[in-house]
Amino acid sequence: VEVDTVTVVVTGDVNGDGVISVTDMLAVKYHILETTMLTGIYKEAADTSNDGNVSVTDFTQIKYHVLEKTLIEAN
Question: How far is CA 24 from CA 1, 14, 21, 53, in A?
Answer without folding.
Answer: 35, 5, 5, 16
